[in-house]
Amino acid sequence: MDEQEELAAYAEMQHRVQEARTIVERNIDHDLSFGRVMSILSMFGNRSRQEVLVEDRESALLGWQRRAWNALLCGERISVFWSLTTLQEYLSRKEVEDLRKIDFQQLISKSKRAVILQSEPPIPDLNPTGDDLVYQLSEQSKVSRDVLQAARAYRTLEWAMIIAYTDESNIFDPTITYPEEWNGDWEEVPMAIRASYVVAGRPTGDYLDDPQARREFWLWWLDEAVPASWDLQELNEAWT
After folding, report:
1. Which residues of the chain register pLDDT less than 50?
2. Distance (Å, whole) CA 15 – CA 34
3. Packing angle of the helix pair 57-78, 104-116 (nearest 10 deg)
4. Of residues 20, 22, 54, the one with CA closest to residue 34
5. DSSP element (H, E) containing 21
6. CA dihedral (81, 198, 223, 21) positive or negative
């Protein structure tokens, strides 16, 4: 992609961001649909692990870098909800000891460095896995918002690093219209949507539904995380 094409793609992405921002502000749930998120992520470039023409390989590499960076920024954003202190009374001593060894800040920093260097980020090998921890604490999560968010944050931080390694699990094409809702396959849910669920829950059918927190998250994603991901830039408020 030459400079003019890059500028045109950035301008189109900004147009889509502004449309999405209007929807977030006007929607009573302040939510952003799968289709809108995908329309923005598709502007980053092709998927690195899908079949692409030789001339599109540079776009695919850049697309992976930008989406990986975006996933890691989202991971940083929701890392404040991870709290072993909140969960430890419900866990075994061995589980607590294992979880104390996990340093998400260090893991995300290593993943970011790998993305910048265009090398393979580390594959997370968490024990317990995110899915196991969420399942184990499902009953406690129904009565405690803090437990719910801590367990979800753990699983979602794990997923951020998986995405950094594999890229988002979708086909990215800026010329197509994506469905408004995702199809029920969790592997195809973009990291930004996963992170929004940690922050505010889903608008319906969830233990947690916080429209104002959802609005704050999506405006952050649109105004800060998306443009920062385009240029692989850090955000000042990370880990606060």
Report:
1. 50, 52-54, 239-240
2. 17
3. 160
4. 20
5. helix 3-26
6. negative
Q: How far apart are CA 167 and CA 190, in angstroms?
A: 10
Check: CB of residue 163 under 8 Å from CB of residue 156: no
* Euclidean distance between CA atoms 179 and 46, whole angstroms: 18
CA distance 38 to 198: 19
pTM more than 0.70: yes
99 near 219, Cβ under 8 Å? no
Six token digits for residue 118? 């265009």
**DSSP letter, residue 195:** H
Decide if 186 contacts 162 (C-beta within 8 A): no
Phi first, then psi, for residue 149 (nearest 5°) are -70, -35
